[in-house]
Design brief:
By secondary structure, the chain is of the alpha/beta class. Helix 6 links the parallel strand 2 and strand 3.
Amino acid sequence: MRITSIVFDLDDTLYLEQDYVRSGIRAVGEWFAKRTGITEFAETAERLWGAGRRQMLFDATLQDMGIANSQAMIHELVETYRNHPPVIALANDALDLLASGSEYRFALITDGIASTQRQKIEALGLSRFGFDPIIATGDLGIGFHKPHRRAFEAVMESHRIESSAIVYVADNPAKDFLAPKALGWRTIQIDRPAAVHPRTPPDPDHAAEAHITTLADLHATLQYLLDVRR
């Protein structure tokens, strides 16, 4: 059976997540400067993030600046980050693919806080490319984030096709491919060099069938997936 639906992940698949992080840090830095008059927050946070700090970044930033923090302060910083209107853009290869027109149906499944992911989706202008459905797993309720099957089953119900006619393109093997593989979907991992999350699967069940480094190779890889099952 030929592949008729391509379902994409969002972060580090259609755009670079590091761009969102930097956008959020700038927004938090502006908020912090207005609140305190201190203008070095964004520069410090970007330096720490660039050096590999991924957990409790804002705590570490305040500590590095010698500023005492509180749970209330950290909460406000995190909320500012999550709710800021992001300044991000589609990766060039993603824009080329989506804008070129296609015989495939597109859908989107993305993890994360729904309001945050919806702001990303709006900033990227994904509605113009006919994605249907667009599923932010945060909208489904507690416990339905990837690797839960619910979002993937919702796409199957919407597209009304056999599972083998759907491919999921995503970046993070820790959570992205377990559910679609179990449902019989085809899977492709995109390994962008600047991706935020590790791209080594924890075990074979989490591994994608094929790998690409650019969406420019997607069509050739879809043909490869068809050939290996003939």
